[in-house]
Amino acid sequence: MFLALSRGVGVKTQSSQAAEYLFNVINFLAQDFHRKWTFGFFFQSFVANGTVVLFMPILFNLSYLNASMQFDLGQLFTSIQAAINICAIPIKFITMQLYMKNLHRINEMLNILDSRCKHPEEFNKLRHCAITGNRIYVGAIIVYFSYSISTCMGFMLTGQAAYNIYIPGINWRNSLLEFVIQGLIEFASMNLICLHQTVYDSYSGIYLYIIRIHIQILNERVRRLGSNLKNDEKQSYEELIQSILDHKLILRLVTAISPMISLTIFVQFAITAAMLATTMINISFFSNVVGRIASIFYIILVFAQSSLCCYQATCLVSDADELPVSIFHCQWVQQGYRFRKMIIYFMVNTQKPIIFTAGKLFPVNMASVLSIAKCSFSFYALLKEMDFGGQDKD
């Protein structure tokens, strides 16, 4: 698809295609419960979702109760840093199901906005949007699977189970066969978990990016208002009205995606500080070389989970702030009274800021990500000052 879109040959580009890979994985995981239910779909959904949403959080916690004394500290912290993330998956999954209809509605509204594009520059932006959206998702897959592969394979090469997950009837310390079975189950389970996380953590960044593109297209369209000398006053006024309707539709897109972002990012913010602090403690005090490498990949993953959405939200707000300036720079001076009166109304409404919040408490922007990182580092610095883990080293 990348090659065809980049050439722009034989492909009718829609901005909703930016989420094509995302929806391919959603369908693979059988998470779109608004589809027609069949036995095959039910079985696929039970295996793909039940394993991650129900069984894995339980098995991780049972492993601490069943074999807490058999963990070495490096292995324990590696397991805990993953368990914190895994225990948040059920909330993200439920949020995704509650608002899955919103994603389908958003795709329908995007098709309406796409149909408004007439200029070659606008078609180029749509094509670039489709390519970049899917690249964002591929990038998320690379980051997540780099962590799972490096952790599971690294620990297996050193003769240890990466997470020591409790699996009934299997004790990986008893024999080589049980060790291999344990390692393969953990590897497959963690890859499936990472596939889930790519959906929950990248959909917001992809859709915010798509909305950004449509805001940029609207900015350029507004700047051209009144500049076509072939149009009479009535035609220029109709173009202005259509631009106002496009802006209202973009605001509807924001309204549709905001509740999903609010819940998932709030959960992510709540656990990020704990995950970063736990990982830095593990790197500094307890982990071996393999554990340090896995933990570094995990830190990259944790930042990717919230940074993608927060970065796109920050850029979207910046793009939206340029709209009143674009309105001011259109050719409104030469237009009639009705056009100039409506342009004032348009400008006033575009000056209302677009704000995304996490749980209606924290702003979704890069400043929040940096604040969480500072909080985690402060906690880590405090523990280091107290010589946390010093006795273990001795």
From TrEMBL:
PANTHER family, per database record:
ODORANT RECEPTOR, ODORANT RECEPTOR 19A-RELATED
- Name the UniProt record assigns to this protein: Odorant receptor
Gene Ontology cellular-component annotations: plasma membrane
List the GO biological process terms: signal transduction
Q: Which Pfam families match?
A: 7tm_6
Q: Which UniProt keywords apply?
A: Cell membrane, Membrane, Olfaction, Receptor, Sensory transduction, Transducer, Transmembrane, Transmembrane helix
Span of the signal peptide? none
- Report membrane topology: Multi-pass membrane protein
Compartment(s) of residence: Cell membrane
The family annotation for this protein states:
Belongs to the insect chemoreceptor superfamily. Heteromeric odorant receptor channel (TC 1.A.69) family.
| InterPro entries per UniProt | 7tm6_olfct_rcpt
Molecular functions (GO terms) = odorant binding; olfactory receptor activity
Q: Where are the transmembrane segments?
A: 39-60, 80-100, 136-157, 249-277, 289-308
